[in-house]
Structure formats: structure tokens, C-alpha cells
Amino acid sequence: MSVFDTRIRRTPRLLWLSVSAALVALLLALCSLSFLVYRDWRDEQQDNLIQEVLWLEQSLRMHLEGHQEWGDTLARDIAAGGVDSVRFARLAAFYMRENPELLSMERVDESRKVLWDQHGTRRDGRVLGNEEFDAIWRAVRLLRPSYGPPYRGADGKYRFDLAIPIVADGKPLGALRLSYQLDQLLFHQVPWWIASKNYISIQDLGGKTLASKFDPAEKPGTVSHQTSFDPPGYGLYLKAVSYRSGLGLTLPVLTGVIVLLLLTLLYAVWRVRAHTRERDAAEHRLAKEVSLRQAIEDCMKSGLVAIGLEGQIVRVNRAFCDMLGYSPEELVGSFPPHPCWPADQHGVLAEAMDAVRDNRQPEEGFELRLARKDGGCIEVRLYATPLVEEDGSQRGWIASLFDITERKRERLALNASHQRFLTVLNGLAAGVCVVDEDSGQLLYANPAFAELWLLNETETPCCVLLPGLRAGSAMDYYGQEFISEGGQRWFLIHRRRIEWVNGESAWLAILSDVTEDKRREAREQAQQERFQNTARLIAMGEMASTLAHELNQPLTAINTYAAGVNRRLAPELELPSGVREAVQAIAEQARRAAQIVSSIRAFVKKHEPQLERVEPSRVVVRAVALAEGLAGKAGVILQMEQDRRACLLDMDPVLIEQVLLNLLKNAIEAMQEAQTRRPAIQVHTFIDDAVWRVEVSDNGPGLSQAMQDNLFTPFYSTKPDGMGIGLNICRSIVEFHRGEFGVHCHPDDGCVFWFSLPLVRTGA
Fold first, then answer.
1. Orientation of helix 250-299 relative to helix 3-10, angle to 10°
2. For the whole model, what pTM was predicted?
């Protein structure tokens, strides 16, 4: 034990007791002095507050008495007839500007109706409520000015009324009503030097605050005083609470200095006594800390080496020695090149030490190769940090080393495997990508995917939008074809849910360009459809040829029987009217049907039709006559307008008549199916210098753009029982006659089918 501790132990107990008693007495004296000063200060604050409250109450009462005197004078002038509504409004407005606490000034009769206010005569018939009429009722009954109790206005703030009776010849004529707002009264009548020190409020008997004026930056203290507020009275109190204020600096500073000196004295005595004990305890802790640090260094798996300013090894831990196989004595104190430096790595290790000295160490440290004592080598990662003393001086560097031999071998093997994997993926023609399942962010993409989808920006962080990745998320596998680039390219996507390297769920998507496959399929499909159409046309031709062949015999028989009947009917034989004409018509129609069948058969078999040089108007008349029966049955108005100029055409009249009849029949059926109101068909013929043109126009539903695009497609029909070859045959007949066939729609409704044939040249 130290000498100082012995002196402390030998110090007389009476001395310690006397010192303690003196300190306690000093502390009690200081507390008593502080209490007396505080009590005197509080009494002074209370006296000042009472004087200010009494002065404020007297000032408010005198202010309201002045208003009462002014109102009494005005009431006498009104009773004497010296003040009308205009003068009252002017006087009221001026007085309210001078006294902002006034909300309104009104003249009210005994029936509570407001006659005048500060704006002039009231014409809205406003009637006062019970609270607003209370002061007037009391003033009229007492025939003297009276105040009403406070009440809450429409704005939620409290107000009170002063009513002054208007008396003429001892008879009350109503009263003059002055309405005050309590918070405005305090705001305008409480002086700033009072409001800056006190919280001023008006309260009722229950202690409820009706109005107040205060500084929100200050907090109320504990010193307060209240007095009766009369006028207006009715249990109102004017209350003032002083804001918190300090005592001054003299007493607190003096007390603080004495207390500080006392505490300093006590602390000094205590520290002198405990100094020796603290020093022994510090030495003990230091020994334990040195032992603990040594144990920590020896237990670390990473090697630690302390290097001096000249590059010499100052200290090593057990892990560093075990790592290299050297003992601490073989390493500590050695200068570069150290025993653990391989002969072929002197330059590299020297450069690393220079980088450490120049503070050029990379963040990931150095990858170095060191030699073991048994002749082997290990790969280490070295991190160096300046070794700085408490005074800021640097003694060298402390380096930590990690054996990464096996880890580096695994990393190289993994890198080689990764390169092989990338080589295979980069060589695929299909695009491969990995997309985060939640955010859609692209995690990986091979070059083929970049060429197909990302425009060669595989390294750019982005979120890819591939069809099907969000749809059907419950399925682990998904496949879909879709079109991109405006329908120019077809893609096939397959996706499968996988677990990515970070453990999160992701989509593995394989994207293939199947545009060429789709085009090849389309070509094959079109070729197949052409084969089918050709086969149907061949079958249709054979069927038409067979029908024409089979119909010739019954038509010939009908013609023969009709001619025989006509010959057997003697001219002198009397028959019913129309029988002979009917027999002749039967024979004529049978010949015409046979001629039509022969023409169609010849057309189907690619035989030359029977061209004749005819007048085309007769063909149009016959076709229209044949269609009139069908038109009349369907309720369609059929009109014909021909160009009367003479012309000749080389044509097969039966085929052209059949074309025109087919156009008329199509128009009638279209309008009948669409239920067109007042359906009508017009047939116009035109002749110009080179052609003869026929137009068949209707007011039916017209043709949509899709119908116009497929109008001449084989076997395309808008009729439920249509075959889709009628217009194709008509166009073929017209084109055989070296003519043109077409259609166009009206802007409003309906459509026009037309064809034109070349005229016979003059002199041909």
C-alpha cells in the first residue's frame, strides 16, 4: 500500500466531521438566502400584478362608460327627431371605426325588429333573438342603459350588448343596441406593456375563459389575480396571470459559484484518497489487457504481422507462423527481403511494400505469393493499415494475411466452368434471358437475345417486357407465340420458373425467331387453298357441263312439244284468251333456256361464245323484263334509263343478258335481306367514243371495306346459300368481251356495279 493511502487512513476522524459539518452549514445558509430572495421577489410580482389588474379594470369601465354617455346622447337626439336613418348610419359607422371592439350598432323597436343599423335602414325585417334582446328588454323596463349577459355569436366567439332606451315624453320608443366582442375589447383596450407581461382573460363564474389576450411565445407562470368585471358584470371576472420570469443573475450566480467550489473541494479530497487505489487497479487491468490481446492475436485464423518504418518485422502472431512454418524468432527483426519471400517474387513484394508506404493500397488488398519454410508456396491476400500511436506518430504498419490458396483454385475452376457455360450460351441461335419474377428486371441475356429483343444493349440494366411473363404466374412452364415489329416478325417464347443464384425466384425465357417458319407455313397454306379452289372450280365446271348436257334434252323436248301443240291447234279453233300466246311463249323460253345452257357450257369448256353484232339496248330491255317479276314480288322499284344513241357491239347477247340479270338479282336480294325502306334499282346506259357502259345502282346497305376486298374472291359470299362464284363468272364474261367490270359505293348508302364493253369501230 502506498504512503498516500496510509496518510488518508491516519487522518483524524474529527477533522473529517468538522469539514463535513461546515460544508452542510454553508449549504443550509445558501438555501435559506435563496428562499428569502425568492419570496421577496414573488411578493413584489404579486403587488405589481394587482395594481395592473385594478388599473386595467378601471380603464375598461371608463371606456365603456364613455360609450354609454355617447349612446345616451344619440338616443336623446333620436327621440327628439334630430337624427334620421342616414345620419344614424354615418354616426354609427364613424364611431365603429374609432372603436373596433364594436361589432354592430342598431336601433331596435319594442317588438325586437331592427329598424336602423350602421348601414342605414334595415328592410329585411330582421328580428332579434332572446339573447340579443335581453339587454334591450331590461333597458326598456328600467328606462336606463343596461348591459346584457355574455352570449356566443354565430362565429363562436363571446359578445355582450349595451342597450340605451329611446324615451320620448316618458314613453319608450325602443332602444339603441351596441354589440361588443369580448376578445376584440381585450385586443384593442389592453395596453401592450400589460399584455407583454401578463396573460389577460375574461372568465365566468365557472372559470370558463370567454376571451383572452396573450403572447403565444410565452408560458403562464404561477402569479395571478382576478377582479370583478363590472360593467358589464353578470358574474364576469377579469383575470391576469403573469408570464414566467427569472430571478436575476446575482443570487443564482453567487450560489452556483459557492456550490461549485464546495463540490470541487469534495472532489479533490476524494480523488487524492482514491488515486493510489486507481493506479493499482490500472496496472492490474493493463496486465490483463496485454494478456487478452496476446490471446486474441494467437487465436486469430488470419496472420498478423507488424512492420516497422524500415520494413523490418516487429511482431507476428501464431497464425502467421503456422501459415508459413517459421518460428517468431526467425521472422521478428528481419529486413527485406524476408525469409518468406520467394526468389522470383522479390520485385512484386517490394512494389507492394512501396505501395503501402505511399498509401496506394487497393481496396481489395494485394494478392501475393509467399514461400513456406518447407519449400512450398501459398497464395495470400494482404491488407495493410498504418500503425499510429496515441500521440499521432506512426510506428509502421500492421498487415493481416488470409490464405486464399484453395479459394483461388476454386475460383479459377469456377471461372473456367463459367467461361464454358457462356461459350455454349453465346453460341446458341435462340435468345436466352433470365428475368426477376417480381420486378421484371433483366438479370442475364445472351447475345442472341440482345440481337432479337434488346438492340445489342445486354449490359444496360433494364426491365424487359416479354409476353406471357406476367400472365399465368401460377404455372411453372409456359409457351406462347407472338408478333412483333408491326406484324413483320414472329417469335416463340418458352419460360420456366427457376431459382436464381441469389436464391430469389426468376424466369428463364428462351426466345426463338420463327418468322421464316411462319412464312413457309403461310405459303404452304396459300398453296393448299389455291389447290382446293382449283379443284372446286374444276368440279364446278364438270358439274356445269353435266347439267348443261342433261338439261338440253328436256329443254328440246319442251320446245318440240310446244311447237307440236301450236301446229295441232287449228287457226279456226276457238280457244280461251292467251292460250296460243302462252304456248308460243313456252316454246320461245325453252329455246332461250337451251341457248343459255349452250352458252354456259361453251364458256365453261373454253369454247368461243357466239359473238354477234347486235344493238345492246334490246339486251338491256330483255334482262330488265326478266327481273321485273322478281322485283315486283320483293317490292323493289325498277327503273331504266338508256342512252338512245345508236351503237353496235360484238357480243354474245345471252351471256351479257345473264350478267345484267345476275347484277339485278343480287341487288334485289341484298335490299330484301337488309329490309331497305323504299328499295329502288336504277339501270343506266352510257355511250361515249369508245365504250358502252352499263351501271346498276341501288339504295341498299352498301358494301363494307372487308366485302369490297373479298368481293371477287372465289367461293366468297355474303348470302347463306350463295356459292361465291356468280360475280367471278360475270367478270370473266365481261373480260372475255374485252370489257371492264367494277363496283363503287355511294358516300351515303347503296352501291353501283358497272361494266363496259368496247364499241364496234366505224368501218370495221
1. 140
2. 0.35
